[in-house]
Design a protein that fits this description.
Elements: H1 17-25, H2 31-97, H3 103-123, H4 128-156, H5 171-175, H6 177-201, H7 206-238, H8 241-264, H9 269-299, H10 303-308, H11 311-394, E1 398-403, E2 408-411, H12 413-419, E3 437-439, E4 445-447, H13 450-454, E5 460-466, E6 472-484, E7 487-496, H14 498-520, E8 524-529, E9 534-537, H15 539-545, H16 549-552, H17 557-560, H18 567-576, H19 581-588, E10 592-596, E11 602-613, E12 619-628, H20 630-675, H21 682-709, E13 716-718, H22 720-732, E14 738-741, E15 750-752, H23 754-770, E16 777-780
Parallel strand pairs: 14-16
Antiparallel strand pairs: 1-2, 1-7, 3-4, 3-5, 5-6, 6-7, 8-9, 8-12, 10-11, 11-12, 13-15
Helix pairs in contact: 2-3, 2-4, 2-6, 2-7, 2-11, 3-4, 4-6, 7-8, 7-9, 7-11, 8-9, 9-11, 18-19, 20-21, 21-23, 22-23
């Protein structure tokens, strides 16, 4: 095969899915749908990208705002806890040493707590429950100051520390620890709630969570140091073991928070070293200051003297400075990471903007393609319009455009020619001027209005057309509706059906002639379609089947034409594998059959089934012709019976003739033998009986000859009594029965065939004798 032959090859390469899709997209099919779809897709894409960009920006801004708010709330909560602890520490330090240097930190802590509570209240204005709890913290701190801290500090200025020993049984109440613990619990619950919210909102930003946790643990680490110092001073003041236990818990909290921080910053060696230095400093403070002072208090030594030295305070100041530097460093890390997040957000936003620009470019390209496609489509539409105009002007059917009022708007040349008009002279006139009448349901033309015709839109109707010269002719009108420039118009396709009407009349006449012929013939005729349903039955068929034409039409042939099934013909039809019911009828119909009518009458028929073929020589139906041969069958049976009797008669005549010849010889010999014997000899009597029997046999042979000749019985006048006596006596001879006769003396002779009457009597006697096997008396009267 050459390359030029390849396109004509019957084996074509099937294109794939994408090939078929591309061909469909660039094909002119569904032009408007494709054009609108392309534009709609571009608009949807741009709208989606703009919405996505706006959504991402607002979401990031909202998340950042919420994160900053949450972190600030947690920070202020931790700072307030630290300031409360610092306030307690300054209070206990002053009570322990009466050193005025503790008054300034005490006062600063009071002011800081007030400011920080106000700031925290501003941050949580949107949450009334949290705002109430913050106000509760301020109330608790103020109550502690008014009822415990300030009175004790004023008393310490004039009295020694031993004045507090009286309340050693309940030191927590003495120093107000339980009251401030309520404030700490509220702050801790507030921080826990914010921590949960922060974790939920920052679950996709692990580094931010880590930095936030580091800042939180640094604050808690600082607070644990303050708690350690505070509880130490409480123990030194009161000697209560509750403060010692609280000191141990604060120490354990310090190591716990330190362990958490070590895990969080394990990947940063410098920060890990700084955290390790803080721990070493705290251990030096514990070993060098806290532990000796608490041990001295426990052993009863002067703890105030040990607390008055500045060694512990110097170490604690160093620790606080180290923690402050570490916290500042972690805050810087957080800020750097926040900046990186902002840059990443800017990059994402820029990427979205670039994507939007790309989408705009894609839309421009799509619109350019749509513009080119529209121009090509318009060029095609102009060509199509030219072709349509050419078709309208050259079609043979008339085409008239009518408005809603029934006024003619346009006519094609064929319509003008049909109605005898020129130069659109009928434009502006009523349509009913050209079509004044239409055929009604009764088949007669009646006057019609335009509204009646308009209601028949979508159907084809027969009407009467009228030319300009008032000549009428039959037309066929098909109305269709269309909308042009928001105005409803009707298009009437008109066809002159004069010739068709003439053909229909001729066909109707032929059909009527055929129907008359079918009604006149004596044979039954049934016509079926290809499915075996009856479409016509004549009068003779109605009489034989018992079905009227109206009832039979549309019924299956087997339901109306009820004949006995020919099993052999049915087997042949099934074996041949007929394609439809018409073939089945042609193959299974026997030549002769028994037809049972609807009323139960039985007819013997002969039938012929012939196919009806269409223009393609395909079987389109069956014509079944059948006639009643019941009388003919009966006559044929009588004829065959007569022929049989004639043949039997010939046979019987031959036999009787030969038998008669034999009897003649027998009778002659018996007569000769009787002449040679004396009259009273017993043998003569027996020979006489044999002669009588031979004579009866001769009469029987004579009957056979009469039957063979087909003539009437041989009648003669004879004594019926003597004939009966002789026949009965002869028939009973040799049996155990005897006979008695009772005949009247006035019995007349009768004209009879003695042989036949004797045969009848002999048959009766034999029957009677057989009814008496032991013998008896047979009475004949």
């Amino acid at each position: 095969m050459t390359l030029t032959d390849a396109p004509n090859s019957p084996t074509k390469v099937r294109r794939g899915f994408f090939g078929r899709s591309g061909a469909w997209l660039f094909s002119p099919q569904h032009f408007h749908f494709k054009l609108l779809s392309g534009t709609a897709v571009g608009i949807v894409v741009i709208t989606f990208l703009a919405g996505l960009f706006l959504f991402v920006t607002l979401r990031n801004h909202h998340q950042e705002t919420l994160r900053s708010h949450t972190i600030e709330v947690m920070r202020l909560g931790s700072v307030i806890e630290n300031d409360i602890a610092a306030l307690e520490a300054s209070h206990r330090g002053f009570l322990l040493t009466a050193d005025n240097s503790y008054l300034e930190p005490f006062q600063n802590s009071r002011e800081l707590i007030k400011q920080e509570v106000e700031q925290l209240t501003v941050l949580i204005l949107d949450s009334p429950p949290q705002r109430k709890r913050v106000m509760k913290i301020q109330e608790i701190v103020q109550k502690w100051l008014d009822t415990i801290a300030l009175p004790q500090m004023n008393a310490r200025k004039t009295k020694p520390v031993t004045v507090l020993a009286e309340s050693a049984g309940n030191p927590g109440v003495s120093l107000g620890t339980s009251l401030l613990d309520q404030a700490r619990e509220i702050l801790q619950s507030l921080q826990n709630e914010e921590q949960i919210v922060l974790n939920q909102r920052m679950k996709d930003q692990e580094w931010a969570t880590q930095s936030t946790q580091v800042l939180d643990f640094v604050a808690k680490l600082e607070r644990s140091l303050i708690e350690m110092e505070k509880e130490k001073r409480g123990y030194l003041l009161t000697g209560d073991n509750g403060f010692a236990e609280a000191y141990k818990r604060a120490t354990a909290d310090f190591y716990t928070y330190h362990g958490y921080l070590s895990i969080l910053i394990a990947n940063a060696p410098e920060r890990s070293d700084s955290l390790g230095d803080i721990r070493k400093a705290v251990e030096r403070w514990i070993v060098g200051a806290a532990a000796p002072e608490m041990e001295a208090k426990r052993t009863g030594k002067d703890a105030a003297a040990l607390a008055g030295t500045n060694k512990g305070e110097e170490l604690m100041t160093q620790i606080r400075d180290m923690l402050r530097v570490f916290a500042k460093s972690e805050a810087s890390v957080y800020e750097v990471r926040s900046s990186a997040t902002a840059r990443e957000r800017i990059i994402k936003t820029s990427a979205l903007a670039i994507l939007c620009v790309f989408a705009v470019g894609l839309l421009i390209v799509s619109n350019s393609y749509s513009f080119v496609l529209v121009r090509r489509q318009l060029a095609k539409l102009e060509g199509v319009e030219t072709r349509i105009r050419s078709i309208i002007e050259n079609i043979l059917d008339g085409m008239i455009t009518v408005d809603e009022e029934g006024v003619i708007r346009s006519m094609n040349p064929s319509a003008e020619k049909m109605f005898g008009c020129i130069n659109n002279e009928m434009v502006g006139h009523k349509f009913t001027k050209l079509v004044p009448k239409s055929y009604g349901s009764e088949g007669q033309p009646v006057a019609c209005a335009w509204d009646d015709l308009a209601r028949q839109t979508g159907s084809t109707n027969l009407a009467v057309g009228r030319t300009r010269r008032h000549a009428t002719f039959p037309v066929e009108i098909s109305l269709s509706e269309m909308v042009v420039d928001k105005q409803k118009l009707y298009v009437a396709m008109i066809r002159d059906v004069t010739e068709r009407k003439r053909f229909e009349m001729e066909i109707a006449a032929d059909k009527e002639s055929l129907a008359v012929t079918l009604r006149s013939i004596e044979d039954g005729v049934i016509t079926t379609d290809v499915t075996g349903k009856i479409i016509m039955i004549n009068k003779a068929g109605e009489n034989l089947t018992g079905w009227s034409s109206r009832e039979a039409i549309g019924q299956p042939l087997k339901s109306v034409f009820n004949i006995a099934i020919d099993l052999a013909a049915q087997a042949r039809a099934q074996k041949s594998g007929y394609r439809n019911e018409a073939h089945s009828i042609l193959l299974s119909m026997p030549e002769n059959a028994t037809l049972r009518s609807r009323e139960g009458a039985v007819f013997f028929i002969e039938q012929v089934a012939s196919p009806i073929r269409d223009s393609k020589n395909e079987v389109a139906g069956v014509v079944l012709v059948f006639r009643d041969i019941t009388e003919r069958q009966r006559n044929e049976a009588e004829r065959r019976k007569a022929e049989t009797l004639e043949q039997l008669g010939l046979l019987a005549g031959g036999i009787a003739h030969d038998f008669n010849n034999l009897l003649t010889a027998i009778i002659g010999n018996i007569s000769l033998a009787s002449l040679l014997l004396p009259p009273d000899d017993e043998m003569a009597t027996r020979l006489n009986d044999a002669k009588n029997a031979s004579l009866r046999a001769r009469d029987l042979a004579q009957q056979l000859l009469t039957f063979a000749r087909g003539g009437a019985p041989i009648k003669k006048t004879a004594s019926i009594g003597k004939l009966i006596q002789d026949t009965v006596s002869f028939s009973l001879r040799g049996t155990h029965s005897r006979s008695e006769f009772l005949f009247g003396s006035d019995l007349w002779p009768a004209e009879i065939d003695p042989g036949q009457i004797s045969q009848v009597v002999a048959n009766l006697v034999v029957n009677a004798d057989q009814a008496m096997p032991n013998g008896g008396t047979l009475r004949v009267s």
